[in-house]
Specification:
- The protein is α/β, with parallel strands linked by helices.
- The chain is 40% helix and 15% strand.
- The longest helix is centred in the middle third of the chain and has 23 residues.
Length: 467
């Protein structure tokens, strides 16, 4: 064993020992499109930095009981992972006028040292104080949606994508790459000058169905967020949707070349992400914007359901055979959070949480999730509105006040009722829900960011680690 390899194993062994003593927790944060992941991590760190001082965290017991002795940012252990842009995000939120932070496009990390007084008499006898190192890892939700590819062949994935293309709204946007691919015979000699433009067209389609049709289950995820792999051959393939394929094709043919690249993508990017990152997470929060698909219609909402099912399937990887033995410990707490609860009047928050719970429970039917504690919650990482009432035709009605993101104008409105169960045909026929995006509030760095229920998220994710 080389000296470098020995040092890596010592580093991992030290991390495992700290985990076993509850000294280190690796919390992964991801989110589907438009869920506000960067704002969430920024606000979470901001609340923790103010915890025990002036942060309002009544549902997080260590803060409510006065057991927090200090929280600060510390250097991260993983020098190859970019640092989360916390200060830049704070500057954008505190600007004049304030702006939502720029979304991150890859993996990043920030580490906090949480010094606290243990509640446990046994721990106090060992030491009057203890420190939990909280590693917060930010990664794109698209990477998580790729994990189910590990159980699919190229032919199976192609059939799945063909069914997606056959849906009217999405198929119409796919006209260009369908036409380009129709001119390529599966058994013709592989030619990068034909495959590359076809893959570029397919990638444009993935971006289009996200932005124009509100699609969530976008695969392969690295096509829309390639990072350092931009232009790599393993990101140049498309699903084969043009009829039957002769037997015996190899990498010398167009079909065989794209099948090989699909397998390469799975091995180096999907399995690589699982091995290097996902397998080492202790806790996970998935942020979900349920409001935008309610605005966009039934097709967008149905795709959100499919994406959440795919996410739940991702968490059963490693629960059996050699995966579990090699990568233990595993994620034991999984929080699904419906974001932007402040964009609804308060009496609608419970409905939003129950809607997400219904969506998540539907995915349970397809995933084996033994040993994972799953919870749902409606929250707002940065509260952008004020709630109140307005007089209308002699009645007092609930309303929101805020600054509309689109034009910067102050508005008072009632967005409508959120369904607390999966919306049926009647809801879509009589759709009266009008979700409005709000700009962030005026805020100064001296005080914690306003939020809704981040303390409840902390109680679920960290509550058992600070006893």
């Amino acid at each position: 064993m080389s000296k470098a390899t020995l040092e890596q194993w010592r580093h991992k062994a030290g991390a495992w020992v700290q985990r076993g003593l509850d000294q280190r927790l690796r919390l992964a944060v991801t989110g589907l499109s438009r869920s506000g992941k960067t704002a969430f991590i920024t606000s979470l760190v901001n609340q923790l930095e103010h915890a025990g001082l002036d942060a309002r965290l009544p549902h997080w017991e260590p803060a409510a009981e006065g057991r927090l002795l200090g929280i600060k940012r510390v250097p991260q252990r993983h020098h190859h992972i970019p640092a989360f842009g916390y200060e830049a995000a704070l500057s954008q939120l505190s600007a004049a006028p304030p702006r939502w932070p720029e979304p991150t496009k890859g993996i990043s990390e920030i580490t906090l040292a949480i010094k606290y007084r243990p509640r446990s008499r046994f721990k106090r006898q060992l030491n009057d104080s203890a420190t939990l190192y909280l590693e917060i890892v930010d990664y794109p939700g698209e990477w998580l949606l790729d994990l189910p590819l590990l159980s699919q062949s190229y032919a199976q994935w192609s059939r799945q994508q063909q069914a997606l293309v056959n849906e009217t709204a999405l198929g119409g946007l796919a006209e260009e790459w369908r036409r380009l691919g129709a001119d390529i015979a599966p058994d013709s000699p592989a030619d990068d000058t034909r495959i590359a433009p076809l893959a570029e067209s397919y990638t444009r389609w993935l971006h289009a169905i996200k932005q124009q049709a509100g699609a969530y289950l976008v695969q392969p995820g690295r096509f829309v967020l390639p990072g350092e792999y931009q232009g790599a051959p393993m990101l140049q393939f498309v699903p084969w949707i043009w009829g039957e394929v002769p037997d015996g094709l190899n990498e010398g043919h167009h079909y065989g070349m794209m099948a090989a690249r699909f397998e390469h993508y799975k091995k180096y990017l999907v399995q690589g992400f699982y091995r290097e990152y996902f397998a080492g997470f202790d806790r996970q929060i998935v942020l979900v914007d349920c409001l935008t698909p309610l605005n966009q219609g039934a097709a967008s909402f149905d795709d959100l359901k499919r994406a959440l099912t795919a996410i739940l399937l991702s968490f059963q990887y490693g629960k059996s055979r050699w995966w579990h033995r090699l990568f233990s410990p595993r994620i034991d707490k999984l929080l699904f959070a419906a974001t932007k609860a402040d964009h609804l009047t308060p009496e609608q928050h419970g409905k939003l949480s129950r809607l997400l719970e219904t969506l998540v429970k539907g995915g349970h039917k397809h995933a084996r999730l033994a040993g994972i504690d799953i919870h749902t919650l409606a929250l707002a990482a940065v509260k952008a509105t004020r709630s109140g009432q307005v007089a209308y035709q002699g009645e007092q009605l609930p309303a929101l006040q805020g600054v509309r993101l689109a034009d910067g104008e102050p508005v008072t409105l009632y967005p409508g009722d959120v369904p607390e169960h999966l919306p049926g045909p009647e809801f879509w026929r009589q759709q009266g829900f009008d979700f409005t995006e709000f700009a962030p509030p005026d805020w100064h760095k001296e005080v914690p960011l306003p939020h809704l229920r981040l303390d409840q998220a902390l109680a679920f994710l960290l509550g058992d680690k600070l006893l």
